[in-house]
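Table S5 (text form). Sequence records supplied for joint modeling of the two-component complex.
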Amino acid sequence: MYAQITQFRKMLQTLSRLLDKARAHSEADRLPPEGLLTSRLAADMLPLTSQVQMACETATLAVSVLAGRAIPQFPNTERTIPELKDRIARTIDYVAAFKESDFSGWEDRRVAPPGWSGAFRGEDYFYQHGVPNFYFHTVTAYAILRHKGVRIGKMDYIGQLPFLR
Amino acid sequence: MYAQITQFRKMLQTLSRLLDKARAHSEADRLPPEGLLTSRLAADMLPLTSQVQMACETATLAVSVLAGRAIPQFPNTERTIPELKDRIARTIDYVAAFKESDFSGWEDRRVAPPGWSGAFRGEDYFYQHGVPNFYFHTVTAYAILRHKGVRIGKMDYIGQLPFLR
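The corresponding structure-token record, covering 330 residues in total, follows.
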């Protein structure tokens, strides 16, 4: 499970770097960065701030339920880029503190994420809900910035080598 | 590895269903569906057709290199929704034909994806490149449709229970 979790750490680092680029873009254009944070791809989709918060939430939820831990509640109160970057950093720290042994038997653990009716195999939940949901918010955050003209490209999403360990 | 691959099958099925909704949307509005297929989120991003093709390519590439197989080449010639749905169906068939035993030792297999310099551990490549890249194209396809006003929502992305086996 440790290897699976590297993708959360890696992509959360990516999100943090994308927010740096968003800030640089706003400063270069003398625009308030909050204009990007409230941007969205459709009127009834969540804005950038919420996409970042939900990427953090979905990673936190996945590792917590698969380790059989209580799910920590981080209130979604961030309103600025530094606050969002701090939220991401705290999420990375939370995820990185888990050890392989914390997930012993996770594949077959019966998990019942909050709001779901019923319990599911850990492996099914992880690969078919937790991971797709995490990337939904991560990629949508990238897409919002891209759509708003922030000068980022695919390599900013894919990230640099070497791979994390 | 079989469990990891269910996410490709599941999300490719999702993409196919999203294309059904795109076609229904176009028909309801008496618009040619090709208008959606050439839509993009930014002038220098790839359009919907390419996002679907690349979701298929990244899934095909990941399972092939991790199983030590030659990478099949599917030319990116699709121009219509039925052609894209057929491409997706062929990709699902390709992915689903692999057995757990085909991936024996995949975590430590040295893989050298085409275009990369150097070889990498299979597990690092999969979780930190193959999977993020697959979701990049899958979520961007969803985002394009959402941005263009197709009546889809988050549950169309997350998909239905039961989980695939």
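Note: Chain A is about 60% helix and 0% strand.
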